[in-house]
Amino acid sequence: MNTTTKTIVWVVVILAVIWVGYSLIKSSEQSSTGPIKIGFIGPLTGDAANIGQSSRAAIELATDEINKAGGINGRNLEVIYEDGQCTGQVASNAANKLINVDKVPVILGGLCSGETSSFAGAAEQAKTVVLSYCSSAPAITNAGDYIFRDYPSDLYQGAYAADYIYTNLGKKKVAVLYAKSDWGNGIKDVFSKKFKELGGTIVAEEGYEQTSRDLRTQLTKIKAVNPELVYFLGYTEASIPGIKQAKELGLNIPLFGGDAWDDTKIWQDAGTAGEGAMYTVVYTPLTEEYKNKMGDNAATVCAPQAYDAAHLISEVMKKIGTKTEDIKNELYNTVYTQGVSSEEIKFDSNGDLVGANYIIKVVRNGKAEELK
Amino acid sequence: MDIIPQVAVNSIIAGSIYALVAFGFNLIFSTTKFFNLSHGIVIVFGGYIVFFLSRNLELNLGISIPLGIIAAGGLGFLLEKIIFLPLRKKKSSNMILLVASLGAFAVIQAVISILFTNQFTSLSSGNISKTYSAYSAFFTETQIFLVITTILILVFLSVALEKTFLGKAYKAISDDEEVAKIVGINTDKIIGYVFFIGSALAGITGIFMGFDTGLEPSMGLPLLLKGIIASIVGGLGNIYGGFLGAFVLGFAENFGIIKISSEWKDAIAFTILILFLIFRPKGIINK
Known about the structure:
Chain A is α/β, with parallel strands linked by helices. Chain A contains 12 helices and 14 strands. Chain B is mainly alpha-helical.
């Protein structure tokens, strides 16, 4: 190697080092001008896609309102939407992209509990704030310091459902049919424990793969043990055929579901088979203004929480800027009262929403309405 | 309540669906000798064509169902002429054909997702179909049609294979394509027909799925896998074998989970596959 080549090699090496160093420094924080970019993760395709799309619409609406009102201290809010497909693996890839490539300070999401659990660790390590608008699995409580949710943990929902079914409906023998996911497993455990404590019996517990659409044999087994009610924890895509198959098999007992049933699509598609089905859902004090702006999506579960999450984060960033550690600390002290998803949004020391009110909805003529 | 009759009915329904998948898959496999994975998406395509015609264009089901079957057949035929035939002419290995069919699968699935969204839809417009019961087992009108259609197709195929020129040419090609060519059979043309018929059967499967359970773009692969397992268990490339294998699989899956928890359903299917691959790789009907 002659001297000229050596010099060239050295120059190249030095330039490379400077460039890498510069880009590391530069990328350690988003630029301080231009729009503030935050991430979104939710199922835009696959299971629960209808809920994901409505949540996206809600966040788009919120972003629009924030930017029209002057943005965050003069800077626009921009959301990068990533599809998590209600699956851990896919959501984890999406989160890695948001954390490492886009360097977002905040991720709104994921929607499904399985999504959020899959990337909570990575986000915690990268000190990226995660604010889930829909994940309810009890396990997420201990996911980390940077992990928040403005959706209540299923510790409340499972217990509430058990109490309602036992006390108000007077059913003592119940079968549980649940999706094998963080969400389904989580509620099932809480529900079964509480229901047994109350004095009831769980006559069957049947799980199914989240992607399964043929639940006939599970339902046949359930029918054989003569329960008085089926507690059916499924997402939209399995619930539609599942509800129909239950009726086709002559299972004429009440069906009771979880918050994922708060999706208008299920009741449109299930038709007469869905009549009389009941489910628990978080009480949301929706304003008329929100309902008008959201149109058809207004009735869907999680969209109000998504809408509030975007507003809440922008309020926090207005106050203390975009440093993730500050955002995290501020969130623990925030009490947000202008929301449509809850009278008051406040986080406990685990980043969980404090308090939860549930209501029961019942399906009549293909539409879910509140049972008073 | 006795659970056995209902589980038997569930098994027959599942078996019929698997058999329909296996028929088409086996027909194509026995002439071309490669695993045509794009068969899975042709199933979905057939269902969605009927969905499009009956929902978006509001055509009568009597018109849209035959059109859906023909469209699925046409798609299979096109895939053969555009992708598989040129590859075979280049003497590509079966592995390359398999990868090409997987590619076609992915592309068509993406197109279906874009056009119809990924959401779950159903061909039966919101209402459960008429239900019958016998011996404490319940079944719907659609399911009766499904089982009858499956048996009719088996009869039709077995007659067609014995009595028609196409059937004889098909058998000659599946024995040895080169020899068939030498005796003057236009093998490319016959294989084209076989793709059309096999894919039309896939279309029928998709349409039944649409009425009985529902449609979504991602349902192709799991269905195809069950069809392939049925084929291997019964005897690869043999339509009777595929039929038998499908029912063995349907019964094993559904009866298997009476005593154990039902999330083991798929595990049972694959255990059977592995057992057959080890102990009887040529399947129940050993050619």
